[in-house]
Design a protein that fits this description.
The chain is of the alpha+beta class and 603 residues long. The protein has a domain of 196 residues: Aldehyde Ferredoxin Oxidoreductase,  A, domain 1 (4-Layer Sandwich). Helices cover 42% and strands 13% of the residues. The chain has 24 helices and 17 strands. It has a six-stranded mixed β-sheet, sandwiched between helices. Strands 8-7-12-9 form a four-stranded mixed β-sheet, sandwiched between helices. The chain has a three-stranded antiparallel β-sheet with strand order 13-14-15. A hairpin with a 2-residue loop joins strand 16 and strand 17.
């Protein structure tokens, strides 16, 4: 009996409308856990690395975990894993919501979608039955309009994950959305849209048993109590934007497309100021005790009833990065992305890059200027519909730079094609290393290397021989949390993440798993992600940063820079420590292939 698991994933071919159930052995589940780990395993098994991500034969996976449905706080999460149309490398995005709980109740540990429907459709999964139903009437609807329409038609007992207009138009950083939250980065929405699927609806009643339910309940109570402590206080009080003013003081707040790293109007965007000027409500994700979701009124002086969730990345991407000083305009841009189904980080990064290209005379769209909110709104709408310059912006900053030329790739704010989030790597150089080696590209959530920058273990302004080991340790912890799946905001409540996670898994699954085994598991998952990228065409020269970060910021000559040689040395140390020397990598790749072959033989 698979405690905590159903022992299978559901494969849906929307070209033919057929489905199949693919068994997952206990050994496979133990070796890849769930979430990002399980999703990556399924993609490798399905051969997704070799496909164009927008081709019918590509595969997109909704991956769950053994913790989903348990009483453990922040465990109602799902991963969306696919090959990214933005980076052509592995992409994994996470979202919290009731969709994860309902999907697990369909009797599956994951849902894999392949093929292309001949017309716009929705997938309806009810218990163990699957229907593909026409949905042409949903074409062009926003995310909230889609949700409301499907709730009227199917009932609120179904949980819905859907794409907005951006996904329908294959914007390469379109999101998959549910209940106002998004599997946001890397373009999973474009992959689903390329399959002509507007939404996935799930409902079920298949529950998993736990190996030790009474002990699990007691552990869950203790974890919930700890989640109310000081480690999560700033998220409860101010939300994810709590550190905006801190990053500005540290000269780590990217501004004007990374031309500088502090923003004079930062206080206008900070949550402390938002609290003074507009109504706020707080909310929590399903099965979460933290309550980091802060929802603010738009246009409060005009009596506007609209509200928007405020996140740090949105404030940075449309505020400092594009030099928009008015908080209401920044929040309005964020609301637009929520409705259109667009990743705010890639949207802001690509628009800011285009603004600098206009500034340098490399683009002719003179209306697209830093500091102009109307230009920002116009650009976002153009991206979602791929009209005018929106057709170029929809490809992301790396693709645009290859088309524009004139060394513009040097200041395109991306790594492996994924736009850089709201942290200047010159000010946080362990994070710079994490960006460079990350399998998803420039990403702060899959590496968490910034932990070392703030821990006092080393100098955040330079890389040292110990930097690689610190980056690996933080990446391993992040990989474990992304595979369990638990919210990163609870990481501070654990004294020993691997030991305590082993205990959680023992109570849920009955496995006699050890912290040492979990370390090996996370290393296997990181290697599986690397294997996917190698099969997808990865080359070593991809593991770097744009040239801009190896020089003084154009508008801040006293700021630190990243030493290119030091970064390359840290990358080499990282690879050696991972066992990714040429011979070591071939051995690891062979082991991973055996995993996949053994699982296929089990079936």
């Amino acid at each position: 009996m698979n405690y905590g698991y159903h022992g299978q994933y559901l494969k849906i071919d929307v070209s033919s409308g057929t489905t199949s159930v693919v068994p997952l052995s206990s050994s496979t589940l133990r070796r890849y856990i769930g979430g990002v780990g399980l999703g990556c395993y399924i993609l490798l098994h399905e051969g997704a690395a070799d496909c164009d991500p927008l081709a019918p034969e590509s595969t997109l996976v909704f991956a769950l975990s053994p913790l989903v449905g348990s009483p453990l706080t922040t465990s109602a999460k799902f991963a969306v894993v696919s090959k990214s149309p933005l980076t052509q490398r592995l992409n994994d995005s996470l979202a919290s919501s009731g969709f994860a709980l309902a999907a697990k109740k369909t009797g599956n540990d994951a849902i894999a979608i392949t093929g292309r429907s001949d017309k716009l459709s929705v997938i309806v999964i009810d218990e163990r039955t699957v229907r593909l139903e026409p949905a042409e009437s949903l074409a062009g609807l926003s995310c909230s309009e889609t949700t409301a329409t499907l709730e009227r038609e199917y009932g609120k007992e179904y949980q819905v994950a859907m794409i907005g207009p951006a996904g329908e138009h294959a914007v390469r950083y379109a999101t998959i959305s549910h209940d106002g939250r998004h599997a946001g980065r890397g373009g999973a929405g474009a992959v689903l849209g390329s399959k002509n699927i507007k939404a996935v609806l799930v409902r079920g009643s298949q529950r998993c048993d736990w190996a030790a339910p009474e002990q699990l309940t007691e552990l869950a109570k203790a974890l919930s109590q700890k989640s109310f402590g000081p480690a999560t206080a700033k998220y409860r009080e101010l939300g994810t934007a709590a550190n905006l003013l801190l990053f500005n003081r540290l000269h780590a707040l990217p501004t004007r497309n990374f031309q500088t790293n502090s923003f004079a109007a930062a206080e206008q965007l900070a949550p402390e100021r938002l609290l003074e000027t507009r109504q706020r409500t707080r909310a929590s994700c399903v099965a979460c005790t933290i309550g980091c979701e802060h929802i603010y009124a738009l246009n409060p002086s005009q009596g506007n009833s609209e509200h928007v969730r405020v996140e740090y990345e949105n404030l940075f991407a449309f505020g400092s990065l594009c030099c928009i000083e008015d908080a209401n305009e920044v929040l309005q841009a964020s609301k637009m992305c929520d409705e259109l189904g667009i990743d705010t980080i890639s949207a802001g990064g690509t628009i800011a890059f285009a603004m600098e290209c206009v500034e340098q005379g490399l683009l002719s769209e003179q209306w697209l200027q830093f500091g102009d909110a109307s230009a920002l709104f116009r650009a976002l709408q153009a991206i979602a519909t791929r009209q005018g310059i929106g057709d170029q912006l929809a490809h992301g900053s790396r693709w645009m730079a290859t088309q524009i030329g004139h060394n513009s790739i040097d200041f395109a704010p991306q790594v492996k094609g994924l736009e850089i989030p709201g942290y200047d790597p010159r000010a946080l150089q362990h994070m710079a290393l994490g960006f460079a080696v990350g399998t998803r590209g420039a990403d702060h959530n899959r590496s968490n290397a910034y932990e070392a920058d703030f821990s006092g273990e080393g100098d955040r302004h330079q890389l040292t021989p110990a930097s690689a080991e610190r980056a690996i340790a933080s990446e391993d912890r992040a990989t474990l949390m992304d595979s369990l799946i638990l919210c990163k905001f609870v990481r501070g409540v654990f004294q020993d993440l691997f030991a305590e996670s082993a205990e959680m898994l023992r109570l849920i699954t009955g496995w006699d798993i050890t912290p040492e085994e979990l370390h090996t598991t996370t290393q296997r998952i990181v290697s599986a992600k690397k294997l996917f990228n190698i099969r997808a065409g990865w080359q070593p020269e991809e593991d770097t940063l744009p040239a801009r970060f190896f020089a003084q910021p154009p508008q801040d000559k006293g700021a630190p820079t990243i030493d290119a040689a030091a970064l390359q040395t840290a990358i080499e140390r990282y690879n050696v420590a991972r066992g990714w020397t040429e011979q070591g990598w071939l051995t690891e790749a062979a082991k991973l292939q055996l995993d996949i072959d053994d699982a296929a033989a089990d079936k």
